[in-house]
Amino acid sequence: xxxxxxxxxxxxxxxxxxxxxxxxxxxxxxxxxxxxxxxxxxxxxxxxxxxxxxxxxxxxxxxxxxxxxxxxxxxxxxxxxxxxxxxxxxxxxxxxxxxxxxxxxxxxxxxxxxxxxxxxxxxxxxxxxxxxxxxxxxxxxxxxxxxxxxxxxxxxxxxxxxxx
Length: 164
Prior knowledge:
The structure is a single chain. This protein has helices at residues 3-69, 92-104, 159-163; strands at residues 85-87, 120-124, 128-135, 143-147, 150-158. The mean pLDDT is 86. 52% of the residues lie in helices and 18% in strands. The protein has one domain (48-163). With 164 residues, the chain is α+β, with helices and mostly antiparallel strands. A five-stranded antiparallel β-sheet has the order 1-2-3-5-4.
């Protein structure tokens, strides 16, 4: 074979390989998109599972604190109105509640939401309390949709039941 024919044969083979790659690549696009969507859904479910677990742990932490201290942690404004603790990692609310809980028991901790666009919330008026997380899925039992992509998951309790 002459060198020119060899080079043309190599170029032709490379051309077939490239065309085949693009054809396969094009055929794989729907599968790739489906895989990416499934991975995103798994990530969302994982974050929501962590949120539900964190809120249940926060609920248990509040109950342990309230049982031993015979009171619920509260936050008030300058007029005496009760306010929620918005538990964003390293925020004043987060640090204040974490400090109050840790002053009682250093083994108890408060978690923060795994993403930056959401937070946990704790509210008490001294008699009742609630802990909340904002989930990404709206198909979880006990979850109340508030706006697209935000579903409020809440656990409520009261001091009297804890102290019984």
